[in-house]
């Protein structure tokens, strides 16, 4: 059964945050010392997650991304992955910072993972520390290499591009995509409720539009557009290279009109829009004894209130609601 929102958008893609904890402190997501973590009894237990996944599948979800916080910190990640696949949801992926990825690749593949997104904003050790608060760049690079070697396909690299921080490395990422079988995706940095309101060193001045990033890329590589793949990224093959380049523009050219996504955080809070308020508390409903049918009604009602679009723009660059590390991007 396909579930539509009030604007006739078919909602079929669930982004599931399995933990709000992280081993990095990226300055655009979870700046040091500013985060209140969920308490352990607030977190959805494995059995609760499994029940909700089945309900979402029944409502038409056919694509799931596991995210976080850092999803590899959840030791039950492989069990969650297996459950998604056992429910018949074949399109399943994982977004990770890659720090502890290498040693988990065999168990993730055994659980059914075939593709992966790894976040990396710089190839420079000092900058990596400056952006993430950690000196684990080499572990992330190893995670990327090992993912390629293990045959995960595609391996996508997410780079959040920030002026005065890593914009000058766009060319290095293009070179990486030329020489490796990966898709490098350049992302516009989004304002979040815990960083652009005075609690971190990032400001609107750090924002770079996809248009500007693309101009830089095209000075280094001829791009051949790919057919629309259903993803929010505009994807291009590199004419003289083995990899691909993708651009994601949530701010300068938002894709709300075709948004098919909903998000469930590790506490069981449903969000129908990344930049909107919480839409429903499924954990509470579950623990108060709601039946599957009741839960479907709660989810459908929340979907009917999915906003038509978000209102963040390059010239209106503020977010009231988004705690990125809790929702998972
Ligand atoms: N910890 C994992 C990781 O970093 O890949 C998964 C969670 S993270 C919130 C998911 C993605 O969101 C990452 O690619 C990260 O770079 C991106 N992200 C986080 N904060 C962002 C922001 N303010 N603007 C744009 N992308 C952001
Ligand atoms: Fe952690 Fe990912 Fe957020 Fe960085 S972007 S702090 S790795 S959740």
Question: Can you describe what's shown?
Answer:
The chain is an alpha/beta fold. It has one domain: TIM Barrel. Helix content is 29%, strand content 18%. The protein contains ten helices and 14 strands. The protein has helices at 46-58, 77-86, 101-110, 125-132, 137-149, 170-179, 210-218, 282-287, 292-304, 324-327; strands at residues 3-4, 10-11, 13-17, 63-67, 91-96, 116-119, 155-161, 182-188, 223-225, 234-238, 244-248, 261-264, 269-271, 280-281. The protein has a twelve-stranded mixed sheet. It has a two-stranded antiparallel sheet with strand order 1-2. Strand 12 (261-264) and strand 13 (269-271) form a beta hairpin. Helix 1 runs parallel beside helix 2 (77-86) and helix 3 packs parallel to helix 5 (137-149). It is globular. The mean pLDDT is 90. It binds S-adenosylmethionine and iron/sulfur cluster. Residues 22, 28-29, 67-68, 70, 95-97, 119, 158, 160, 187, 189-190, 192, 324-325, 328-329 line the site of S-adenosylmethionine.
